[in-house]
Amino acid sequence: MATEAPVLDTAFPVGKFARVWNGEYRLHYHELNRPNGRPSLLFLHGSGPGASGYSNFRHNYPVMAEAGYHVIAVDYLGYGHSDKPRDFDYSTENQVSMLHELMQQLGVSQVIPVGNSLGGFYGHAYALTYPNEVPKIISMAPGGVHEESTRPFSPGLQAMVAAVAKGPQNFTRESFRELLKLIVKDERHLTDQVISERLPIAQSQPIEIYTRAIHRPVWERLHEIKVPVLAFWGYHDQFLSVNHAFIMQEKIEHCRVIISNQAGHWFMIEEAELFNSACLAFLAEQG
């Protein structure tokens, strides 16, 4: 269950902690409202260094909460304020299992994943693992929709792999900003606040969250997703090409895609107003 948050020296706020994995690890999350008859919204961040539920979705989950939804913005194990063990297998199955355990502790029986990048990957995996508990899915440039190993890495992924290989603790403010420039179309979104929120977390992350991450692909199972899906893609995405949006539409029966030429990989940040309004309209739809 949730525990008292410790006092941390951090640039972004500390929320709540839950014990998972037989009580061995703490997952950190921000929560607004309580389960209320509607499906709860589970915000799932990407895999970039320094990522957290708060840093990815601070412009979004409060808006959904104001509309009456129970929202949770979680930090995966190895990210944000969650524990960061070095001897853990950071597989999709393990991370999704812990997310489900958190939902059970919070009394959530119906959940709509709202995932960016790796979070979109986890959202699809969650829906495939617990299909009776997921009535809809929202994704932003989700991973795992194409057999990436058969084609070269994108410029963004190449840069991230190279940066992480040097050791996350070796990030400087300058090198970190250069990496994040590939995530956005407009560098004005990389404010000092954004860098300050993410850099200390990035420097504290063990390299094992990358070297011991096993992301078994879901592209061969996407056709099994029968619930409505709303996907967003930035036309200027340098991490996961906008072409993947059309693969999703081909494989998922009820998939709607919104593409913006004003965004890169961080659609929910660069196009926050469009994202929020489209999500609320999608969530309000019946059937």
From TrEMBL:
A GO biological process held by the record: acylglycerol catabolic process
Cellular component aspect of the GO annotation: membrane
UniProt GO MF annotations: monoacylglycerol lipase activity
Taxonomic classification: Bacteria, Pseudomonadati, Pseudomonadota, Alphaproteobacteria, Sphingomonadales
Originating species: Rhizorhabdus dicambivorans
Residue stretches making up the AB hydrolase-1 domain: 39-271
Name under which the protein is recorded: 3-oxoacyl-ACP reductase
